Amino acid sequence: KFPTHIKLPFVMVKFLFECGCSSAFNNKNMTWSSCFINFPSFKCISSPQLTFNFRLLKVLRNKAISMNFDQEMKNVAKFGMHAPDSVIFLLQVHSRPEFVQQLINSLRASTGIEHATVVISVDVDSPEINEVLARIDFCRYMVIFFPFAKVLYPNSFPGEDPNDCPKKIPKAQALERKCNNAEYPDMFGNYREVDFVQIKHHWFWKLNMAFSGIRAFNNQKAPIILLEDDYFVVPDIIHCAKQAEELRKSKCPRCQTISLGNYEQTQDYQAQGNQVEIKSWISSKHNLGMVVSSDFYNKIANCAEQFCNYDDYNWDWSLQAVSPHCEMGNLFTLAFKATRVFHLGSCGVHSKGECNAKQSAESRTAQLQNQKLYPESLHIAVDSPTVVPAPRPNGGWGDLRDQTLCKKYKHDNYRFCSSSCSY
Length: 423
Prior knowledge:
Blueprint: H1 8-17, E1 23-26, E2 29-32, E3 50-52, H2 54-70, H3 76-79, E4 88-93, H4 97-108, E5 117-122, H5 127-134, E6 140-145, H6 171-177, H7 194-212, E7 224-228, E8 231-233, H8 237-251, E9 257-259, H9 269-272, E10 275-280, H10 283-286, E11 290-292, H11 294-302, H12 304-309, H13 315-322, E12 332-336, E13 341-343, H14 357-368, E14 379-383, H15 400-408
Parallel strand pairs: 4-5, 4-7, 5-6, 9-12, 10-14
Antiparallel strand pairs: 1-2, 2-3, 7-11, 8-13, 9-11, 10-12
Helix pairs in contact: 1-2, 4-5
């Protein structure tokens, strides 16, 4: 039995992870039929026999369950319990431990970090990343695990089922082949790619987890700062985030969010270090170091239907496109002219090149030397929130299973598999 106050993320994880299927051991490996989410009835259905080391997979699933249920807040003895007005950094971490290390180093150097709380949401079990996180000794922190990560479902949805349609197969051939998602290509005729759809899933799950699932944040008053594993923060980020939130409330109530970062090649902290501008939120410009308040989160959650149905695997493009058509309304942001969050190089999810995380971080650190940080107050330099047209969708999100799973992240007490589905 679970405490009644435990909300969606815990209930979902428990029931989904305990929802396996009939299985038979083959020496040390297990051959089993996959139990996966099958729109619209979420039944346990049989897929081709799949053989892999089930014991190791079950250990990893149980680890994810424990992390999300236990919600162990580390370093409490040193820094005390989380307070409602404590700043929260919410990190989405996938891979690349060398970048994670630089992000953690930059947080370590942030003034006031000892009063903040850091939540790291991971979707892989990486010894290298685990080692980086275990060395955090400068603040409270918690690690949670995205429970629908492909590593937990290597041969079934939400991972990639062997009977899923190849990305480029024509729909007519997919229907003839009877692959699982033949009916649901995206707007360009392509079928889902797990590595890309997982990012949007993880983003929306972690947001719901932070605002409605983590028990320590039940009475949270301060907003949450969203970061990703290849970001690098400026030492005065907490100072500036607090100032910007007060300014947003008093001078720009129509601004739903704050954008702490930007992608400009040159930064002028001497002339613009205390300047912000009111702008229409554009996904490609204002997604870096996004600040989300509880009020804004509630609007996002209430737009889940539109957000999860929109055929774009990018969470930020989806957010911009659907906002005018739901409770969010046209998005406006209070954006810093001199960035407080850097994106380290061009080593993002779409990049095929290589870059050196340590060198990129050292370059940013050198760039900040002798700069004018910690402004006494912020000044609105530009107020031009012209409504911009919605971006053209990128596709990649046509699979009805993805859309349906996405919508469940905001709901309580939802069981994904029938009671007859068990290990």
